[in-house]
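Discrete fold record:
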Amino acid sequence: MSEYRFIRWFEELGKSDVPLVGGKGANLGELTNAGIPVPPGFCVTAEAYKYFVNNVKVSKEQIRELLGEKAETGVLAEILANAPEEERTLQDWIMDIVSRTNVDDSRELLDNTALIRELIDSMPMPEEIASEVLDAYHKLCQRFNKKPEEGEFIYVAVRSSATAEDLPEASFAGQQETYLDVYGDDDLLENVRKCWASLWTARATFYRAKQGFDHRKVYLSAVVQKMVNSKTSGVMFTANPVTNDRNEIMINAAWGLGEAVVSGAVTPDEYIVEKGTWKIKEKYIAKKEVMYVRNPETGKGTVLVKVADHLGPEWVEKQALTDEQIVEVAKMGARIEEHYQYPQDIEWAYDADDGKLYIVQSRPITTLKETKTEEAEEVTEEMEVILKGLGASPGIGAGKVVIVLDVNDIDKVKEGDVLVTTMTNPDMVPAMKRASAIVTDEGGRTCHAAIVGRELGIPTVVGTKEATKKLKDGMLVTVDGTRGVVYKGIVKSLVKKEEEEKAAGGQVVVAGAPLITATEVKVNVSMPEIAERAAATGADGVGLLRAEHMILSIGAHPVKFIKEGREEELVEVLANGIRKVAEAFYPRRVWYRTLDAPTNEFRELPGGEDEPIERNPMLGWRGIRRGLDQPELLRAEFKAIKKLVDEGYDNLGVMLPLVSHPEQVRKAKEIALSVGLVPHKDVEWGVMVETPASAIIIEELIKEGLDFISFGTNDLTQYTLAIDRDNERVFKLYDETHPAVLKLIRDTIKVCKKYGVETSICGQAGSDPKMARLLVRMGIDSISANPDAVELIRKVVAREEARIRLEAARKALE
């Protein structure tokens, strides 16, 4: 058990701790425990942020004092005019502001999110959190023989690591802030609070709104890590993100802190290394004109300086890494990729103090694409090259040039324009989405513009050095993101070819050609808004379509809707949401899980005042228990599905959650029949196996008539091991691969095979390669994973099936 309530050391963390410390924190713990050289540190958990916003209270008069004139205009003035006199939690004020913000209005979004950040920055950190943060910091300092009681500290980096409740798979990479060279108690507390505030940057708020995330359930962990005094640093991709060659490692390197490479402030060296032989295939030695260093005036924080002034003119075009270091970095990348069994995007640094290589971050590459090798186009007279750079995101884009030198000008970029800038930053993402192509002066193939361009599928050329000077507003250009060139005018032959390829279905896939596996690999979908993206993973269907976000999105308690005579409105909301997913995946199957929201989630909705207060909602009135007690809710869900069946959608299945008795299956069928929905004929009919009871009496459940079952390992594990998965004190004991859990799964699959009932899994464990290998050997029919894990799980499944075939062949030869 941890010694702290709000702190976790890296050594206490692993990749399963995303809900507690976000992806960045969980990965640093995972790497630390895998023996990778990670600078030591700790995480101020998401529970600390949650405690902060829900326990710090402020009155409207205090807000007027804190924000002055800003409180007298716009949205905040309207909120204050209608707010009660008594103090309210910080979370209440934040939600009021964000709920009244039009995220598509760039100016309103920037202004309102700035108000939220200023409000957070002005609030004191609760003593119960601050005391733990400083105690952990002092212990970290003492590891390096510093005496904090005498004013001796170490420098640390404070990084943001966001996470979403109920959606631990959600990605928020690059949306929040990082603060470097932080020194001393006051500086640390200030920067942890700044990280919390950065949850409400314009770009982060915009992203969550467009992805359909509930702002109330997104939290932030602050990662505090010993600072590397970087001599050289950079980024490494363990698969070439431009050519998609998985046998190549791409390394970008520059002088000083890695922020210069990540932000695109400098065009870095680029090295291409062949895996296995460790041959350096390519070197591009850039003019590295600037670098980030510790601020020499204040002794903390960072400043951008000229390399020629700081190191000497000869360092500008000097190779940043020796050949030996290039190979050392590449081998470390391959080691990390082997650990995760997936290509990684890694930030690394060489420490000037001890000369050692350190890894400061690693995340999966999400932008590998399927590309075709093409013969070089013959350059005709109409293809006049006016600019060259690095091809960072393949494809052809053409349109009118719009030069953006300040984030406040992003509204100038209209649909189909070519965005030209010195270097993009996350605040420019709304404009980048509208652009037909992106061209920058600075940056390498791992800079912000390159990564976002690949994610959005927008042709991108970076590192041109003079795009903002050579190109003029209003010019018509054609951008070739594959070859890294910009042509004068609209090159019709290239544009036409691009349009033909898109029309022929040349869509981006997650990575490589799709593998065909005997075990189907499906995807979990939480919100209809991500249906197209989820379908693009090539998944074999949807193993779990959650109802909760659709129902909770109506803004009021669903029973309230029904009592007010608005049942048809509720049915229409559900039908529209399910239709989006069924259409995106058709004819692949989509299994819809009926409502399974605990009472504490319903209680927050208008009309939820009568919800019971339960000591442990996870064990309470939820799932099919509630559906049968309030049949009007279940009836509305079945009416929505019946509506889609009548429209011709024959790829739907119904899945009942938290089943523990055959009678529950029988009664649910009766309600379905009452609205004209016929199980086994109109829809496939199944249950979630997420209680030990359902696993033990699976034969009796099957005899009630089931087409399929799906393991909900999140609940099955906590109920089998008597562990509350939301309780941080016991969460370390939570293990989906515990022998008792595996025995229940294995025995259930065996019985289902006997009766011809299909088996699947849709819990978080379905996204774990180790669990996937075990399930394949148990004979499961399908595995449903989170969207970002589909490709990885498919590869794991294919490899395990191949091993099984090989073992059988060898055995036959004995």
